[in-house]
Amino acid sequence: MLKLYSFGPAANSLKPLLTLYEKGLPFEKNRLDPAKFEHHTDWFKAINPRGQVPALVDGDHVITESTVICEYLEDEYPTEVKLRPETSWGKAQMRVWTKWVDEYFCWCVSTIGWHRYVGNMVKSLSDAEFEEKVKAIPVVEQQVKWRRAREGFPQDLLDEEMRKIGYSVERLDAHLRQHEWLVPGQYTLADICNFAIANGMQLGFPEFVSAEKTPGLVRWIEQIKARPAVKQMYAEVELEQLGPRD
To answer: Which InterPro entries match (predicted)?
Structure first.
């Protein structure tokens, strides 16, 4: 049976989770707790040496990188539910959106999320305890990000990331005012991957996202949330509750 190692249904962990639910594939859920740094433990790094979730185990194979996992599932486990267009043109349109969310939209939202929430997980640690946690992180760039989250990101960086979020929201809304889905005519991995980042922005970024300001984006978010697979996913997989930065 497929085994998925992930956090709760948000951000990059949501992508393969929702793909599995949409396709109706049976899988073993392994939900790691980021507050306990389980993704940096030796047992998990034996699965993914980079110490990052999500990771999919399929027999002797380990597949990492959230969007890659989604495409792997579509390749390896064809189902009646098709989450990728049949035509080369449709696939290209889908991948424009999955590439954009991975390389742009996700990163600016992630930085603000780390600033607001992730730093709370290490605020109570002493300097020595914190450095022990950091030493267990195999990716140097992630070590830097944890240190910045604890110390506080530079204000000019936060301002630039907020500008990028505003631009991203405008781009999505403009497209979704004209089309039901990101790839016209079909719900695809492009919708899943962007929903993973956009869902909840009405609460987290109300200055950018609301029914009045971004009706296309809000309509699309609510339409995805109403899907049976999405409802089932949220009912069965717990979402982390991280408090805001003081």
So the answer is: Glutathione-S-Trfase_C-like, Glutathione-S-Trfase_C_sf, Glutathione_S-Trfase, Glutathione_S-Trfase_N, GST_C, Thioredoxin-like_sf
CATH number of residue 25's parent domain = 1.20.1050.130
Q: How many domains, in total, are found in the chain?
A: 1
**Confidence (pTM):** 0.95
Residue 26 CB-density burial (10 A; 0-12 exposed, 13-18 middle, 19+ buried)? exposed
Structural domain span for residue 18: 2-236
Convert the pLDDT of each residue in 160-180 to its tens digit: 999 999 999 999 999 999 999
Per-position b or e across 36-47, b if 16+ CB within 10 A of its CB:
ebbbbeeebbeb
* Integer Cα distance of 191 and 196 in angstroms: 8
What letter does residue 244 receive in the DSSP assignment?
A: P
